[in-house]
Amino acid sequence: MGEGVLRRYKSFLPIGPATPMVSLGEGDTPLVKSQSLGRALGCAELYFKLEGCNPTGSFKDRGMVVAVAKALEEGSRAVICASTGNTSASAAAYGAYCGLTTIVLVPKGNIAMGKLAQAVAYGAHILAVNGNFDQALALVRDLAQKHPVTLVNSVNPYRLEGQKTGAFEVVDVLGDAPDYLCIPVGNAGNISAYWRGFRQYCQAEHATRTPRLLGFQAEGAAPLVLGHPVAEPHTIASAIRIGNPASWKLAIAARDESGGVIDAVSDEEILEAYKLLARSEGIFCEPASAASVAGLRKVVGQGLSLKGKQAVCILTGTGLKDPELANQIADIPLLELPPDLEQVEQAIVSLRGK
Ligand SMILES: *Cc1c(COP(=O)(O)O)cnc(C)c1O
Fold first, then answer.
1. Are 163 and 183 in contact, with CB atoms under 8 Å apart?
2. Per residue in 78-87, pLDDT tens?
């Protein structure tokens, strides 16, 4: 417990005696069994993997710890990334932990409050670029070419290596791979990493099979579904607001080799799943994370039968990253009352009637 992914999965990672075994306690996140949604979808067993329980509140820590450890091993003194928020939060945390300078480029006005707060708190150098994520990524790629700074976006191969440990954990807990694995898709690194993880675990005979991957993009940012880049991606789910995924080819290969699909869900469907998870499962995740559940609901609605099947939804980040959104869409009135017993009692009675 809390040993981190480098120690736990050493033999599956590209690390050697010279790699510093750093850890902020990432990985080993809960796999929670669904209380109601699984039944509603006719699924034998539905699980949620709570990646929001990672040290900075998203799965990005799994890949960042490997990328930063390798940067240290190679003598780097600084890391840089473009980010819709979670990558910068993670890079800033691991950078601080390892004494590295961290530079993050974020699309101006397009990053959730909690994520920006993290980068600020961890002391990263933050540059807000007047452009979208794809443009920020192009900039940091150029900067890392020209200057002695390590790029830690998921184009850094160590990121995907670390992120594949999520698949290992699913198998370690369930005893084998599930029938279906549902996952949100933005820059498409994570779906590619999970596929690699499941395949490697199968080859190592820790699993007897691989799951079908069901990847979900947001409708306004669905290049993999459309088959071409989207110049101005838009969706409420900022973590997957990406128009030209870096891991495009890997994600398509993951989809096809697994016999799965990559589909799109609307913002409305995402928000419905986001609310449902909180209110009927007690799980508060990011809107982007809820895309996995929105997508599963969609494909079941279209006729996919989960009878006798086991499914896992990867909930990639915590809802606390974006508290403004939760408050914006709140449909429960916040009552203001004087500190008076009778009036409080009356208010509770009238609320219960609703
Ligand atoms: C990064 C991120 C995603 C998308 O993952 P990709 O590897 O970019 O496809 C989804 N949800 C959250 C919370 C993220 O931080």
1. no
2. 999 999 899 9
**pLDDT at position 45, please?**
98
Chain segment 139-180, per-residue pLDDT in tens: 999 999 999 999 999 899 999 999 999 999 999 999 999 999
Which of 87, 185, 190 for a ligand 1 pocket mutation test, highest count of atoms within 8 Å of Cβ?
190
The DSSP line for 200-265 is HHHHTTS-S--PEEEEEEETTB-HHHHTS--SS---S-GGG--SS-TTHHHHHHHHHHHT-EEEEE
Percent of the chain with pLDDT over 90: 89
Atom of ligand 1 at shortest distance to CA of 289? Answer: 11
Instruction: Name residues contacting ligand 1 (CB within 6 A).
Output: 58, 60, 86, 154, 184-190, 239-240, 286, 288-289, 316-317
CA of 240 to the centre of ligand 1 (A): 6
